[in-house]
Hints:
By secondary structure, the protein is an all-alpha fold. It is built from 3 helices and no strands.
Amino acid sequence: MLDRADPRRATSSAMSGKIDDRQALAAIVLWNSGQFDTFDIGKLLDVGEDAVCRTLNAARHISKAGVGQQ
């Protein structure tokens, strides 16, 4: 059962919310260090694991496409 007193637990597990630019950069740096998994990164940055995964997937997509290529 959800604890209604904690607003973080009241959100849907499908989408945990937004991640700001600094958190996104930190997530990428932490992931690339090889020392953290997505769950730990989410806990460190106080964001949902799904937001970390979306950020890493977007970074991979941009990296594969190359900067400035369309």
